Amino acid sequence: MIKTHPRVFARRLRTHIAKCGWIWLLSFLLISLFTHFYQPAVNRTESLPFTLFLIERGEKNLSVGDYAAFSPKPDSVGGFEFTFVKEIACGPGQRIEAINREIFCDGKKIALAKTHSKRGEPLDVIASGMIPPDHYFMRGTHPDSYDSRYAKFGLIDRCRFSGKAHPLF
After folding, report:
1. Could you give the CA distance from residue 117 to residue 122 in angstroms, rounded to a whole number?
2. 27 or 133, which is more confident?
3. Using CB atoms within 10 A of its CB, is residue 82 exposed (0-12), middle (13-18) or buried (19+)?
4. Alpha helix positions (H), 3-110
């Protein structure tokens, strides 16, 4: 390894900053601006067919069919704070019906609830009724997805959304 005298190193560093400093500054500003509005998210489960999402922070005007990033109530996920990404399957003013563990939104089947989790824990189905204002039925497309079809997970309040999730792949 070649050792450089401290004065030579300092001169080279000043020259590099003079030539390329604006590139570093611009890169830093662009990354800061991008991460202020967007956040990458990785899906580590089989609940959705996508692995990578780009979350548009602060976007809370979502509709049925959109993907949303949110934090469920901590007691529904063992007391921890997690960010989930799920599809909005049913929204405010729509009717949820649970018949023989099949979940319907305004008469359209949207999910099938299992009787037990993968760990053997019993799972209660969400109660039938109208979805109140600012609440959403969130679902994953995989049969083992833990989502609003279960009473403990429940409906998600809009205030728990962190943004709209755009699937990348």
Report:
1. 6
2. 133
3. exposed
4. 6-37
Q: Are 160 and 70 contacting, i.e. CB atoms less than 8 angstroms apart?
A: yes
Cα(145)–Cα(129) distance, rounded to whole angstroms?
22
The structure tokens listed for 48 are 């959705």
Q: H or E segment at 70? A: strand 67-70
Structure tokens at 44: 């580590």
Question: For residue 75, which amino acid is it?
Answer: D
Of the ranges 42-46, 99-103, 106-110, 158-162, which one carries the lowest mean pLDDT score? 42-46
pLDDT at 1: 60
pTM surpassing 0.85? no
Give me the mean pLDDT over the 124-143 stretch.
96
Q: Are 50 and 43 in contact (CB under 8 A)?
A: yes
Q: Tokens at residue 97, please?
A: 């019906």
Residue 110 CB neighbour total at 10 angstroms: 18
Residue 135's pLDDT is: 96
For residue 14 the two structure tokens come to: 């000043």
